[in-house]
Amino acid sequence: MPPRPDTQCRYTGEWTATKLCWGLAADQAEADALKVYAEACETTVVHYTPAP
Predict the structure, then answer these.
(1) By residue range, what is the domain housing residue 2?
(2) How far apart are CA 9 and CA 11, in angstroms?
(3) Domain of life, per the record (predicted)?
(4) What is the mean pLDDT of each run of 10 residues along the chain (52 residues)?
C-alpha cells in the first residue's frame, strides 16, 4: 500500500479493477484488507473492462 493516504484510494481502486478485469481471485486476507481500505474511499469508483 502506498505510504501517502491521498494515494491509497486510487491504488485500492486500480488494484480492484485489475482483479476484476482479469477475473483474478482474492484470498480472504486480501479481500478483508481491500474492504478496510475501500471503506475510507467513499468517492472512488472502480471502472474496468473485462479482458478478452
Answers:
(1) 1-52
(2) 5
(3) Bacteria
(4) 91 96 97 92 94 92
The pTM of the full predicted model, rounded to 2 decimals, is: 0.83
- Gyration radius from the chain CA atoms: 11
Identify whether the C-beta of residue 50 lies closer than 8 Å to the C-beta of residue 14.
no
Please enumerate, as own/partner, the contacts of 4-11 that have beta carbons within 8 Å and a separation of 24 or more: 8/37, 8/40, 8/41, 9/37, 9/40, 9/41, 9/43, 9/44, 10/44
Q: What's the CA gap between 47 and 17, in Å, rounded?
A: 6
Placement of cell 469508483 in the chain: 45
- What cell does 45 get? 469508483
Question: In the chain, how many domains are there?
Answer: 1
